[in-house]
Design goal:
Blueprint lengths: L1 E7 L5 H10 L3 E3 L4 H12 L7 E5 L8 H13 L3 E8 L2 H11 L6 H4 L2 H17 L3 E4 L5 H12 L9 E8 L10 E4 L20 H7 L3 H23 L4 E8 L5 H15 L3 E6 L6
Helix pairs in contact: 1-7, 2-3, 4-6, 9-10
Amino acid sequence: MEILIISGLSGGGKSQAASFLEDMGYYIVDNMPAGIILKFAEFCAGTQGRYDRLALVYDVRAGEDFGEFFRVLDELKKGQFTCRLLFLEASVATIIKRYKETRRPHPLYDECGSIEAAVNREMELMRPVRDRADYVINSTTYSTAKLKGELAKLFGTPGVRQEMTVNVVSFGFKHGLPMEADLVFDVRFMPNPYYIEELRRKTGLDREVYDYVFSFAQTKDFMKRLEELIAFLLPYYKEEGKTVLVIAIGCTGGHHRSVAVTRALVDYIGSLGYQVTENHRDMTRN
């Protein structure tokens, strides 16, 4: 039986990781105290394979000394189980940003008085757990697709080839390049709907903007060549074993041209039979 213990910092990506691992066939239990882990593992081992892949989330919310956790970890590793420890983290600034976006309280906020102090305190508390980890993932620059791909590479079923997912993301150059991008295409040469009063407050997902962007010959010529290039590249990336390919399409603000082109490219890649996701990073930013 395989046991994966997911630990790490609050806001580091544990919940997303648990969700992806559940899709990969793991049975997930969140916030399990150390004293219960061994008994639960023994119970699952006696179910004739019903729970042969466990992922148990253990973190600072347990509110206990890590000595018991390390004892349990040692017992699991030397016993009948295949046990691994995954630790997820991110930069302080990234975690603060994530908490501001979700408006959830950090588990140490009341004790520390601010999110920054809480994150720094948690880093200090969790350092011994991090030092024992078999895998450490820093999710600071990870998109959802990239985190999923990394987990599939590390914990996918042995012998099963993971399908490649193509993530197409639109962005605005004024907000910076997406750090996870494998391929970047600049569409700022296209006529800008921003200068059309009735289109300015719309996005490339609106039909009026989409039709405007694709009404120009240079857009159509660009898409033809881009589709030819992507159709050429994707089989080679897949053959090379890449699980996630991130294609970034950028315009000035990330509202109009890049969004329209991203939507068209997603439709094309889907028509080729690839798993494809669509993300508009800056579409709602000023």
